Amino acid sequence: MKVKLDGIEKHFRTVWMKGSTVCMIDQRLLPHRFKLLKCRNYLDTIEAIKNMTVRGAGAIGATAGYAMAQAALESANLRKPLKYLFMAADKIKASRPTAQNLFYAVDRVCNAINNEETLESAVKAAVLEANAIANDDAEACRKIGEFGNTLLGVKDSVLTHCNAGWLAFVDNGSALSPVYAAKAAGKQIIVYSDETRPRLQGANLTSWELLNEGIEHYVIPDNAAGAFMRDGRIGLVIVGADRIANNGDTANKIGTYEKAICARAAGIPFYVAAPTSTFDVNCRSGRDIPIEYRSEDEVHWIYGMTEKGKRGRVKVTPEGSKALNPAFDVTPAEYISGFITEKGIILNENKGFDFEKLWK
Ligand code: MRU
Fold first, then answer.
1. Three-class SS of residue 271?
2. Closest listed residue to residue 36, CA positions, set 22, 50, 49
3. What residue ranges line ligand 1, CB within 6 angstroms?
4. How far apart are the C-alpha atoms of 135 and 115, rounded to whole Å?
5. Bridge partners of 239?
6. For a disulfide at 42, which of 70, 84, 268, 283, Cβ 3.0-4.6 Å?
7. How far does residue 86's CA lie from ligand 1's centre (Å)?
8. Four-residue CA torsion sign, 240, 246, 248, 252
9. Contact present, 145 and 130 (Cβ < 8 Å)
10. 331: helix, strand or coil
């Protein structure tokens, strides 16, 4: 999407590869500073995934694909290149446990390597495949926007939790893509954006995106969403997904489950927007989805910008209190009205979801 820098609009993806360097927007600094980070080797790229310089299912997936491509390039001069590549694949997969796109991307690049007969062609194939993953992600999200737009009225209001906009993917986004498509079609959409604790991704990232796109929005505290839904302010909820199980149970940023319950209580549709690369056919239900627990510090401390324009953190809990920080929760399929994918919208038929058409 476009970012205005010093008055000039420039198109950016969240992550891309130039030669053997992986470049990405440093999302830790948004919304106050727009800066790029360059990772020169695959270990640096893994670190960027771990410390959430790059985050969001699709963006993590593309970055993981690029990390594999970097490892392939690095392996070209080694005596045991395959051993190096297997090790790299394991390390990349261990960087973050929940986002399915990460595993999808590493496996896709490994398959591309396996299909080649020489090391030289395998390295080329790895780079090509990593770029293909990124392009596929951007295109799938564009189509999600087209399908999702059909759910939005000429004047509508959407609640989204966390950030599943273009920053969470390579481009376009999942949950926000329908909003961008609606705006392009001349519709008037108001977005309510939360996830104001612990990572503040609704407050920091979604608001930044919407501001850039000129879309009317309000950042609301996490615990205001239920009341706003009941009061009739919100027409529908659209969230993203980090992993979707075979029965439709969906892992997304912590707090999503509560939004789904509130939406059900208020009689509001609750949609999940995600590309098919987020579906994990090996998970029978949400119970099989691994939930990442992150550092207690993300709960104890808040980062922000001081009035003097300096980035800093403040402590919000007493010394000695312990914290728990699950990064995701699972929303049971029964609360989900439908999935907006690049292959169309799959609605919740009374018997559950028929995902067959996704795999044709
Ligand atoms: O921890 P993150 O930022 O990588 O988590 C991902 C998310 O931002 C959300 O869960 C999002 O809604 C799904 S990613 C498209």
1. strand
2. 22
3. 55-57, 60, 162-164, 168, 174, 201, 239-242, 252-253, 327
4. 21
5. 272
6. 70
7. 27
8. negative
9. no
10. strand
Q: Return d(Cα 261, Cα 266) in angstroms, integer.
A: 9
pLDDT (0 to 100) of residue 152: 98
> Which atom from ligand 1 is nearest to the alpha carbon of 60?
4
d(CA 199, CA 204): 9
Burial of 55 (0-12, 13-18, 19+ CB in 10 A): buried
CB atoms near residue 319 (< 10 Å):
6
- CA 55 from chain center: how many Å? 6
Tell me how far the alpha carbon of residue 77 lies from the centroid of ligand 1, in angstroms: 36
CA–CA separation, 36 and 234 (whole Å): 35
What is the structure's pLDDT at 6?
85
Specify the residue for token string 């009061």: 231
Is 249 catalytic? The answer is: no
Torsion angles phi and psi, residue 189, rounded to 5: -115, 135
Q: Are strands 344-347 and 338-341 parallel, antiparallel or unpaired?
A: antiparallel
DSSP-based three-state secondary structure for 349:
strand
Q: Whose CA is nearest to atom 6 of ligand 1?
A: 56
**pTM score above 0.90:** yes
Confidence (pLDDT) at 148? 98
For residue 342, report the distance from its CA to the centre of ligand 1, in Å.
18
Average pLDDT along the chain, 360 residues, taken 10 residues at a time: 90 98 97 96 98 98 98 96 97 98 98 96 98 98 98 98 98 98 98 97 98 97 98 98 98 98 98 98 98 98 91 96 98 98 94 89
Percent helix, percent strand, percent coil in the chain, to nearest 5: 40, 20, 35
Specify the residue with its C-alpha closest to ligand 1, atom 10: 253
Ligand 1 atom at minimal distance to the Cα of residue 292: 1
Q: Which of 156, 171, 222, 242 is catalytic?
A: 242
CA of 321 to the centre of ligand 1 (A): 27
Residue to substitute in 242, 336, 341 for testing ligand 1 pocket (most ligand atoms within 8 angstroms of CB): 242
- Separation between Cα atoms, residue 79 and residue 18, nearest integer Å: 26
